[in-house]
Amino acid sequence: MSDNRCFHCSLPIDEPIRFFATINGICQPMCCPGCQAVAEAIVAGGLGSYYQHRVGSTSQQVTLEPVEELAIYDRADQQQGFVHPADQGCMVANLIIDGITCAACIWLLENHLSALHGVVQVSVNLSTHEAEITWQPDQLPLSQLLLAIHQIGYRASPWRADQQEVRLKQENRTFIRRLAVAGIGAMQVMMYAIALYSGAISEDMPALHRDLLRLFSAIIATPVVLYSAAPFYRAAWRDIKLLHPGMDVPVAIAIGSAYLASLWATFFAEGEVYYDSATMFTFFLLTGRYLELRARHATIRAARSLTGLLPPSCLKAVSGHFIRVPVTDLQVNDIVRILPGDTIPADGLLLQGTTSINEAMLTGEHLPRKKQSGDSLLCGTINMGHPVEMRVTHVTEQTQLAGILQLQRQAQQDKPAIARLADKVAGWFVLFVLLVAVAVYWVWSGIAPDDAFWITLSVLVITCPCALSLATPACLTAATGYLHRLGLLVTRSHLLEGLHSVHHIIFDKTGTLTEGNPALANVIVINDTGLAPQTVVELAAGLEAHSEHPIARAFATPGRYKATDVHNHTGQGIDGMIDGAHYRLGRSDFAAPGQQLTPPDEQGQWLLLSRQHQPVAWLQITDTLRPQAVSTIERLHRLGKTVTLLSGDNASAVARTTRMLGIRHWLAEQRPEQKLSYIKKMQAEGQQVMMVGDGINDVPVLAGADVSVAMGNASDLTRTSADGVLISGNLEHLADALCLAARTQRIIRQNLLWALGYNLTALPLAATGMVAPWMAAAGMTLSSLLVVSNALRLSRPPAFLPGSALWKV
Amino acid sequence: MITNDVPTLLSALTLGLLGSAHCIGMCGGITAALSLSLNGRSRTQLYGLMLTYHLGRITSYAIAGFLLASLGWYLGGLTPAVKMGLRYLAAGMLIAMGFYLTGWWRGLTQLEKVGQHLWRRIQPRASALLPIRNPANAWAVGMLWGWLPCGMVYSTLTWSAVQGEPLRGALLMAAFGIGTIPSVVLVGAFSRQLGIIIQARITRNLAGLLIIVFGLWSVPGSHQRWLASLL
Fold first, then answer.
1. From CA A386, how far away is CA A339, in angstroms rounded?
2. Which of A444, A491, B58, B91 is 20 to 30 A from A60 via CA?
């Protein structure tokens, strides 16, 4: 066979080639006079550009336009907003995918895309239809990636808040239309069905009347089956094409075959009609899907409400006057005026005056916080006090709000093991159902050929594993949403699962159990150096200006001295050069090695400042405990958890803290690697360990624990590796989260038990012909409804939870 | 009604469906090219116009079927031998169509060459009507493009010539045309893969074989009566 292919229809042509057509100036081979004529006519009609735009094959009507449209997404300026750089030259794109109907679609997309060369990781979220794709731009242009999604039958578009809203509305409207057609149609068909049934029972209906009623049913059922149920066929076809049966396959088979069998019966007057079952099943399924869609939209909107709060414009100072500019025009160092009631448009520093700010949207804390000049103001929070001015420090993607959103999206993308398992189980279940259906049909054809069809129909309908595949994601979505309202941001989805099995909770001290707002309480200059205390403080401030450790905040105002060549020694201190001399600040054995100095006082935490390894001065740092620390530790103990405090501070400071908090296990003067080895030791003993610490200095420790939570006031949110971030800073919510995790596991188990139990008990009933198809349709819907409403219980506070802060929420 | 014709019409419909492998490449291309000028319209509008275009095409087929069946009816009325000859011709054309589809023997291209003469007259008008702007326009374009030289259409036309009645011939051609719609329209709606499957060698060969079997069966003979008695 030759490799020649017809330029128009791409069918192979045998040698010699006898037909040609001139297209866009080039003589191209044609397989037949027909194609030649078509090609010539297309060119003559001014549509020659068609041949330039098509890709691969001619049957490209849909993919034709996207190719062009998608190419613009290769441009960097078009990628802004939904593409972010990641590690090792990779990029991360956030996309919205249209056409996802069930868990199987997720599997499909993930598998198909992961197989592409240059794609590192793909994660698609079932409830928001968002995809997060990590890929190497030098291996694969973004447009090719998008095209690959189109080719398996989905539509991808960049994640953008405004586009997303339009899409949600559109999706909602289409769905309602389908639902309305199905509902009205099903009711009409049901009326005819009753007449038909009663006629069949009393056996007095003339054949003409019967045929007429069937014909009317057929006419009304047609739009229901062809229009309302279209999404099921589309999804089923996609599943079949990619050899991965999802639950839409039995659904499509059930609706389609019931309709076709009825048509046959109507026009050839043999057999039964099932218009009522087909339309009702469509209607019920759509109702279930619609509820699911509403829940999904609610989740998306809740996640987006943060972005939605941003004002479109703000007052910017331009040559002494404040003029209104779009927020997108803001640059770092711009001065912005914020009126009472306004939302803060970017991260910045309060320039002058005092005001109070409601940060509830970021922290979950509803009481306004007092801010004075020099304090930081966060993008998305609301000014509740006086008109103030602010200098912008971070805009758009760099703001803390954007960081939180990014974390949140990441968590939504991340799929917990239990959900992956459910996806897999549902896939196998569908295969099982199809096999059972075939077997049932075969057996009943032997027993009662007239009944075989409707019994098989019932089996297909009743076993639809909708509830099964809803059971887990619905719970996780509800619980995560609730945690977020408490101010605990879930950044890795295994947090909820992990919290449930935790035995041992390890806390860091500074910034975790304490406020993390250390203050300099005392300076004692060591006699023979002769420096003024003020100088000591300024020297320390010069060093600490380079540190992100919470203690650095005690030296907030920078002094005269600029330190160079500064190094942080985690858990020990900081060193650097000031005016040519080598200074160290930190633990006494670090600042003055080998000198065994004891702090002047047992109380509080003492840092030693040394010059050229010679002790210069003691600086006392005090840090107050968080208000909920005592009650939280007590609650954790009551829940039967072991609580340990691991701190880098000296023994006396740690001992004092643990006495106040009632913590029995503690280790002081721990460097991060020691903390990590402690965690490893506990894990080796078979304990599930949860680490609560500050986001930055404890990174390896947080990563080593089974579950980790970082405090939200810890420096840079986006750099945290923790599974959760306690943005509210309210420790009490940790205990709440533990309780919620237990409740979530319980409800997931109830849901799975119910869904599996229902499907497995209903199956033999249907297979033995005890359930009519319409009853099966109703049962299936009720089962899904039950599962979803059970899951929604997780988005409300529990009825009774002793000593819980949830009472106050 | 025309219940006696149902099997024949269903056969014609099936013929159209089986021809998909051919139609997708050729007419699918037309559909895609025509919809290029419709960029920016909603999906519903696009499908509406495309469907109108295809209905126009089917109208042309029906007209051609009507004309050929009239001719066959007239010729068949002359002597029974001519009628029998026409039936052999129709069977032969169907078999040729099967071979054409599989690509084993492309004798029908000769016939298409003849058809090109007709098309040369129509093509300027057909191209002048482009691009498609409204339903009436789409219908007209469909009617003109229906006269494209196509071996499949010619085979089916000879078959319609032996129907004995002009109206039956028209109906048969319409049924054939309707059979070609799914492949041409649906491939647009679904993805590339479907097109690739339909155009695959195995599919074309299977479809071609079925048409050959169908053509063999339509060769006049007693086997037809025997099969009919079974049904």
1. 7
2. B58
Domain co-membership, A203 together with A172:
yes
A381 shares its domain with A248: no
Alpha-carbon distance A191 to nearest alpha carbon in chain B (angstroms):
30
DSSP code of A797? Answer: -
Q: Please judge whether A61 and B28 are an interchain contact, meaning their C-beta atoms are less than 8 angstroms apart.
A: yes
For residue A470, which phi and psi values (nearest 5 degrees)? -85, -25
Based on the structure, what is the number of domains in chain B?
1
Contact between A241 and B119 using a beta-carbon 8 Å cutoff? no
Same domain, A591 and A546: yes
CB contact under 8 A, B26 and A8: yes
**Catalytic site residue A508?**
yes
Beta bridge partners of A575: A567, A584
Catalytic pick among A334, A508, A706, A723: A508
Note which residues in 161-180 of chain B have CB less than 8 A from chain A: none
**Claim to verify: residue A450 and residue A470 sit in the same structural domain:** yes
Domain that holds residue B37: 3-230
Q: Give the pLDDT confidence score for residue B60 in this predicted structure.
A: 92
Helices (H), A127-224: 142-151, 161-202, 207-223
Q: CA of B147 to nearest chain A CA: how many angstroms apart?
A: 10
Residue A341 is part of a domain; what is its CATH number? 2.70.150.10
Rounded to 5°, angle at Cα A30 from A26 and A35 = 110
Three-class SS state of A337: strand
Q: Which of A14, A18, A32, A112 to mutate to probe the B interface, most B CBs <10 Å?
A: A32
For A102-139, give one letter per residue: b (16+ CB within 10 A) or e: bbbbbbbbbebbeeeeebbebbbbbbbbbbbbbbebee
| B19 DSSP 8-state letter | T
* Residue A150 and residue A63 in contact, taking contact as beta carbons nearer than 8 Å: yes
In a domain, A805, yes or no: no
> Is A494 within a domain?
yes
B33 interface with A at CB cutoff 8 Å: yes
- ipTM of this predicted structure: 0.77
User: Which residues constitute the domain of residue A348?
Assistant: 331-394
Contact across the interface for B103 and A12, Cβ inside 8 Å: yes
pTM of the model: 0.50
List chain A residues with CB under 8 Å of B116. 33, 36-37
Could you give the CA distance from residue A700 to residue A676 in angstroms, rounded to a whole number? 7
pLDDT by 10-residue block (mean), chain A, 809 residues? 66 74 77 79 73 48 50 72 76 80 71 82 76 84 82 74 73 86 84 77 74 86 91 84 76 87 83 82 79 70 60 80 78 86 84 80 67 83 83 80 70 63 72 87 87 83 73 79 80 81 86 77 78 83 77 71 80 84 85 78 77 86 83 90 85 82 86 84 89 72 84 57 80 89 90 86 86 77 82 74 40
A457-490 tens-digit pLDDT? 888 877 776 777 677 777 887 888 788 778 787 7
Residues A509 and A642 reside in one and the same domain: yes
Which of A11, A54, A152 lies at the smallest CB-CB distance from B199? Answer: A11
DSSP codes of every residue in A25-57 = TEEEEESSHHHHHHHHHHHHTT-TTHHHH--SS
A785 half-sphere exposure, CB direction, 13 A CA radius? 11
A232: CB partners within 8 A, 6+ apart: A101, A248, A251, A252, A255, A282, A285
Q: And the tokens for A560?
A: 């005269």
Q: Is residue A402 situated within a structural domain?
A: no
Residue of A193, A188, A278, A297 lying closest to A233 (CA atoms): A278
Q: Are residues A127 and A25 in the same domain?
A: no
- The vertex-A616 CA angle with A610 and A618, nearest 5°, equals 95
Residue B134 in contact with partner chain A when CB distance is under 8 A? no
* Tally of domains in chain A: 7
Give the Cα separation of A205 and A226 in Å (integer): 30
